[in-house]
Amino acid sequence: MVDIERLSVGIKGFDDLIAGGIPRGFFVAITGEPGTGKTIFSIHFAWRGVLDGDKVIYVTTEESRDSIVRQAQMFNMDFASAIDKGKMIVIDALLKTRGDEWSIEDLDIEKLVEKVIEAKKKLGYGRARLVIDSISAFWLDKPAMARKYSYMVKRLLYKWDFTTLLVSQYAITTAEAFGFGVEHIADGIIRFRRAIRNGVLKRYILVEKMRQTPHDMRMYEIEIINGEGMIVKGPVELRREDITLPRDVMEKIRKAKEKTEKETTFHTNLK
Ligand SMILES: Nc1ncnc2c1ncn2[C@@H]1O[C@H](COP(=O)(O)OP(=O)(O)O)[C@@H](O)[C@H]1O
Ligand SMILES: [Mg+2]
Predict the structure, then answer these.
(1) How many A from CA of 64 to the centre of ligand 2?
(2) Phi-psi region for residue 263, left (φ > 0), alpha (ψ -120 to 50) or beta?
(3) pLDDT at 241
(4) Preceding omega of 136 cis (within 30 degrees of 0)
(5) What residue owns the CA closest to ligand 1's atom 7?
(6) Cβ count within 10 A of residue 142
(7) Which residue has its alpha carbon closest to ligand 1 atom 17?
(8) Which of 204, 251, 252 has its CA nearest to residue 33?
């Protein structure tokens, strides 16, 4: 038997889908359209880290630090006190608050890595969790750099004992063009989806990849409950057309992707 140390995500019903948790040291891509639950999933992972005594770093690019703290508070996770007690650092890459040592001025991937390492040193030695929400923000204006940047992040952070969630956006129009890059280097891919069923918004989660893990292959419905957070409900059987986009949209995506691939000059000579 291979004994693998796994980190609980802290979401009711989710750890069971991946044989108990995410293997220590993994880089896991979290992808999905806006509003599908990526940030809330990541907040759970971070909070579970605090409870387990891990060092926790959360980088936020699309919401302010306050917004993340408030969102967590709605599910009774006290990020503010975890930060005060030196168990957790939330790096704000949105507001560029002057004089705040845990904010970054611009979306520069090398500065980010530097800041993350600085935060890890501050939190101290030991098992750590890192969330970058989102990593695609760092290449929004240069999607061709996605793969190179992803490799760089993985290489530079490798020895710092992080288990990492890399959130990436799936913009409706460009879809895979944005997700692509992170998925390439990921040890795991967790995909969020949404659909309207009988006029009601439903959300789903699917483990598309998890190395060294006999993971569940089914798509599960999830729910986000006020005061509680995300829970995993039962597996679903959907017809393909329930979750795929209309044909003309798919065609647009394919063209966008083709274009990006052409623009991509892929260098492996990383620092
Ligand atoms: N307190 C809450 N109770 C119930 N649902 C909530 C609560 N807070 C947020 N949500 C739901 O979560 C969604 C946002 O999820 P989020 O993880 O931020 O999405 P993503 O990061 O994928 O864009 C909201 O649109 C809302 O539907
Ligand atoms: Mg989000």
Answers:
(1) 11
(2) alpha
(3) 57
(4) no
(5) 226
(6) 11
(7) 37
(8) 204
Q: Which ligand is nearest to the CA of 70?
A: 1
38 CB within 6 A, ligand 1: yes
Alpha carbon distance 154, 187 (integer Å)? 11
Ligand 1 nearest-atom number relative to CA 71: 8
Residue with the smallest CA separation from ligand 1 atom 18 is 39
Residues forming beta bridges with residue 169, ordered by sequence position: 32
pLDDT in tens, 43-55: 999 999 999 999 9
Cα–Cα distance between 76 and 224 in angstroms, integer? 13
Among all bound ligands, the one having the nearest atom to the CA of 192 is: 1
Q: In this structure, what token pair is assigned to residue 107?
A: 């979306």
Residue identifier of the C-alpha nearest atom 14 of ligand 1 = 35
Regions in the chain scoring below 50 on pLDDT: 175, 177, 265-271
Which conformational region is residue 86 in: left (phi greater than 0), alpha (psi within -120 to 50 degrees), or beta?
A: left
Domains and CATH numbers, the chain: 6-263 (3.40.50.300)
Ligand 1 within 6 A of CB of 231: no
